[in-house]
Amino acid sequence: QVQLVESGGGSVQAGGSLRLSCVASGYKISTNCMGWFRQAPGKEREGVARIDSDGIIYYGDPVKGRFTITLDNAKNTLYLQMNSLKPEDTAMYSCAAGPYGGSWRAYESNWWGQGTQVTVSS
Predict the structure, then answer these.
(1) How far apart are CA 24 and CA 95, in angstroms?
(2) What is the 3-state secondary structure (H, E, C) of 46-97?
(3) 106 burial via Cβ count (<10 Å: 0-12, 13-18, 19+)
(4) pLDDT, tens only, 4-44
(5) How far is it, in rounded angstroms, from Cα 67 to Cα 116?
(6) Minimal CB count within 10 Å: which of 11, 44, 59, 112?
(7) Please, is 38 exposed, middle or buried when counting C-beta atoms within 10 Å of its C-beta (0-12, 13-18, 19+)?
(8) Each residue of 66-92: b (16+ CB within 10 Å) or e?
(9) What is residue 2's predicted lDDT score, i.e. its pLDDT?
(10) 98: left (phi > 0), else alpha (psi -120 to 50), else beta?
(11) Which of 63, 92, 66, 71 is nearest to 21 (CA)?
C-alpha cells in the first residue's frame, strides 16, 4: 500500500513562511519523480515544484524565487519551503510521486496524497 501524507499547512500572514512535508510509505520517493501541486477554490490544479527522475528541479512561475523543494532520502520525505507567502498562495497543497515525469501533466498518473491546506491572509 503506497501512501503519501502531507503536513505543515496552516494559516499565516502575508510575508510569512511555512514548510510542508510529504512522508511516503510503501514507496521510495527518491528513486522516482516527486512534486508539489496546489489548487485554489474555483481554479484548476497547478504545478508548484517538482523533481523529475533525472534530478532536475522545476518551479511554477508564481513561486519562483520564493519556494524551495527538497528531498530527505533517509526519511523518505519531500519538503516544500515556502517563504514570502502571498494571499494568492492560498490553496490546498498536495504531493505526488511515482514513475511518471517530464511534464506537470504526467504527474497525474502518479500516487497522490490527500493534501494540506495553506491559507495566507493580508
Answers:
(1) 10
(2) EEEEEECCCCCEEECHHHCCCEEEEEECCCCEEEEEECCCCHHHCEEEEEEE
(3) middle
(4) 999 999 999 999 999 999 999 987 777 789 999 999 999 99
(5) 16
(6) 44
(7) buried
(8) ebebebeeeebbbbbebeebeeebbbb
(9) 87
(10) left
(11) 71
Nearest to 53 by CA among 112, 114, 117, 110: 110
Q: Look-up: residue for cell 519538503? A: 79
Look-up of cell digits 501541486:
37
SS3 1: coil
Amino acid making up residue 57: I
